[in-house]
Amino acid sequence: MRNIFTLLFLALAAQAQAQTRDSLKLFLQPIEVRALRAGEKAPFTRTEMSKQEIEKLNVGQDLPFLLNQTPSVVINSDAGNGVGYTGIYIRGTDDSRINMTLNGIPYNDAEEQAIFFVDLPDFASSANSIQIQRGVGTSSNGAGAFGATINFSTNEFNEKPYAELNNSFGSYNTWKNTLKAGSGLIDGHFTIDMRLSRISSDGYIDRATSDLKSLYFSAAWYDKHSSVRFNILQGSEKTYQAWNGIPQAKWDGNPAALEQHYQNNVGSLYFNQQDSLNLFRSSNKTYNYFTYKDQTDNYWQNHYQLFFNHQFSDALAFNSAVFLTRGYGYFQEYHDQGDLSNASYAAYGLPPVVMGADSLQSTNLVRQRWLDNYFYGSVFSLQYKKNNTEWMLGGGWDRYDGKHYGNVIWAANGGFPDDYRYYSEPAIKIDYNVYAKWQQQLGQRWTAFADLQYRHLDYELDGFDDNPSILVHPKYNFVNPKAGITYTHYNWQAYFSYAMSGHEPNRDDFEAGVNDQPKPERLHDFELGVTRKALHYSWGATAYYMRYQNQLVLTGKINDVGDYTRNNIPRSYRLGIELQGSVKPATWFSAEGNLSFSENKVFNYVEFDDDYDNGGQVSHAYKTTTIAFSPAVVGAASLNFTPVKNLTLSLPAKYVSKVYLDNAQQEGRKLPGYYVQNLRTVYTLHIPGRETNLIFQLNNVFNKRYTPNGYTYSYVYGGQLVTENFVFPMAGTNFMFAVNIKL
């Protein structure tokens, strides 16, 4: 396939004509992205990353790790080394409340609303720019931005033919191989860009392997006033399941607590009991619950995007796009016969198996749980800009058709029909929105901004795997206003804005009885910022206040159908300040950094714990506590040296203060703060007709033991409240080395 790819590139490159962009006057603006991004004078808090910045960071780790040095960001990795399943928090907000778009097209999973970066392997190699808007930000397509927005753009015009071969190798047998090529401009109107990638890793955690593959193809046609572009993004992932984390007692090396944890939980675990006992008692600090060799997650996701841009005049431009995202896959899991909730015949609606005089109630089995979906729709924007006035009208419509089903593919004692399907539930979600944005220059220094969005949602959820009889069809209408003003004078800029956003519940929130259905969330966001840019330095400060109504959080409460689901809490808030700065006192040295301080509180929180002694649950009420996963201090800094020509040495560092695993703010349910120091060197070799970049990255230089993510649950047992914490440790000192060749 790679030979065909290379031959196609060479054939197209041979046809390319050496015509300049200016003489052709082609319509090259990616206005589908401009419609959603905050402009230079928009009153929103944002961070930009260029293609050059992305390239020097991209050595094979997932997208959150490229964003780690931006303000108020905390990242994590199930496998511990940034390959496979990864996550991101911005201002303490998880990725299910962060809006993400690819070229203006919504990406968040329609049901869970989470961002599965693992389904976009090596997407960074195709990204030309990234904008992060912290807070609600300006109106976008897709899921409501409840803490931040991340916009990625790949639609860049490449005038000249090019080819790149990028290879990385690192700790834990981690490999990245990328082949990129582009035709340049053909016959004055056409371009083609392509990429093939493969990433594999054994992971830091036991049995946390990843095998990731992706393809990117983009063909575009340009004229003086129009452009058409067709994109294909394909990704596949096979990862071992490391999402249960490891017991904190195991990570801390506490034998007594570890043994008690095993005795309390062995009956509910997914694996062979003797294997699990041996692992619990071993000294391996990278323990993974799952020991079944095919305990894997397998998913394929294909994106098809078609864009049409047209410039009616110097002042008026139009963009439209249609898209289809096709996703399908399964995770395969083993259940031991001792796990009666998942391995008994009764759990699958089947009678016991009779063998002689014995009636077998359960069996060892292997099952697959499938997700099969189509997500399709369209987006548009009409943009007008003349003199001191700019306005925009846009919106989108999309539909999600999803199928959830499970098959038992093997049972030790039989009793299951071939490929027995034990549940099958369809789901439909329809989402459409329209927005209008207006920006007006008021004199030489002031700019006013207003933005109003209407969003409608329609769910059809016909059952869940554990509760097939629950049928819910909720509808939501959100009106989301935003407004602000910006002051600009010489190298100073200041802004103030207010924005409101509504956010619908996730699929799992609806797995409840009729008396316990969730309410939508609402956020009011106030932002006040000031920046100063000079020749050799810059600095900025942003203060924010984010007030929530009916935020959905896990409380431990069991709903009236016996499941743990999130519950609405009436009031909570985030209050903080973000500081940024950079300085370049000499040509060979520069420094940059950011530091965020925040207070994140929830009022009148009630925690529910299972009572194993007496049945039911016990509750504990708290007046004011800290919101889970919301550190009070987050900081990042980098010292950059250029000791000789073409060599750059950087020392990026990250600090995150302690976080609590739930909203009860108990010291026994927290993750300690950490400071991590990395090192990166980039050396560029210039050979006629070729540029080679050698990148060496040493992560966690001081071998810090830390865990940025985890979860907790508590229960009453033997008259005592027992707390079980699980953590996702990050790797100690590890490295990546990359050789990137540009032709």
> What is the approximate shape?
globular
Instruction: State the helicity in percent bands.
Output: under 10%
Question: What oligomeric state do the depicted chains represent?
Answer: single chain
Describe the sheet with the most strands.
Answer: 22 strands, antiparallel, barrel
> What is the arithmetic mean of pLDDT?
90
Radius of gyration over all CA atoms, rounded = 27 Å
Q: Structural class of the helices, strands and pairings?
A: mainly beta
Low-confidence stretches: 15-23
What is the number of beta strands? 39
What count of helical segments does DSSP give?
9
Terminal Cα separation, in Å?
20 Å
How much of the sequence lies in strands comes to over 45%
Describe it for me?
There is one protein chain. This protein is mostly beta strands. It has nine helices and 39 strands. A hairpin with a 2-residue loop joins β35 and β36 (690-699).
Summarize the structure.
It contains nine helices and 39 strands. It is mainly beta and 743 residues long. The chain has a 22-stranded antiparallel beta barrel. Strands 1-6-7-4-5 form a five-stranded mixed beta sheet. Strands 2-3 form a two-stranded antiparallel ribbon.
Question: Which labels suit this protein?
Answer:
single chain; 743 residues; mainly beta; 22-stranded antiparallel beta barrel; five-stranded mixed beta sheet; 9 helices; globular
